Amino acid sequence: QVQLVESGGGLVQPGGSLRLSCAASGSISPYRMVWYRQAPGKQRELVAAISSGGSIIYADSVKGRFTISRDNAEKTVYLQMNSLKPEDTSIYYCYAHRVIGGSDYYWGQGTQVTVSS
Fold first, then answer.
1. Which residues, including other chains, have CB under 8 Å from residue 24's CB and lie 6 or more apart?
2. Measured between alpha carbons, how far is 36 from 95 in angstroms, rounded to an integer?
3. Which residues pair with 40 in a beta bridge?
4. Which residues of the chain have pLDDT under 50?
5. Per-residue b/e over 87-111, b at no fewer than 16 CB within 10 Å?
6. Torsion angle (degrees, nearest 10) of CA 72, 35, 59, 88
7. Which of 30, 47, 8 is nearest to 106 (CA)?
8. How confident is the model at residue 62, as a pLDDT?
């Protein structure tokens, strides 16, 4: 079992930056790591994902503004968020699913990001 703990959320002004972290209790090397977000009344959406091999995808809405990265040695995944907009306001969740040697998956508890003046 792997526990995921998000941190780094908070209140930021439009145009500002924030870096989210997802710290795992075990190795993340065999996992594809994903950041999702879900705002009240809206469906959960994929924000960014990074594969076990380093391949990256982004939602169109965040391309050019957000950067996902991973540090396997530190067992941590990051989401650097720049040029934040009010519509980025959401709870951001870290998700991991194994791609080698199994099919297990894990969710973090989420961290609130609020973009407002």
1. 2, 3, 4, 5, 75, 76, 77, 96
2. 7
3. none
4. none
5. ebbbbbbbbbbbeeeeeeebebebb
6. -130
7. 30
8. 98
Q: What is the pLDDT of residues 17-39, one digit of tens each?
A: 999 999 999 999 999 999 999 99
Location of structure tokens 């959960």: 44
Residue 97: its pLDDT value, please?
Answer: 96
Residue 1's pLDDT is: 87
Instruction: Look at residue 56 in the predicted model and tell me its pLDDT.
Output: 98
Dist. CA 42–CA 22, nearest whole Å: 23
**Which pLDDT does position 100 carry in this prediction?**
81
Q: Which residues of 54-80 are buried (b: 16+ CB within 10 A; e: fewer)?
A: eeeebeeebeeebbbebebeebbbbbe
Reference 24, options 67, 74, 69, 68; nearest CA is 74
d(Cα 30, Cα 53) in Å, to the nearest integer?
Answer: 9
Strands 10-12 and 111-115: parallel
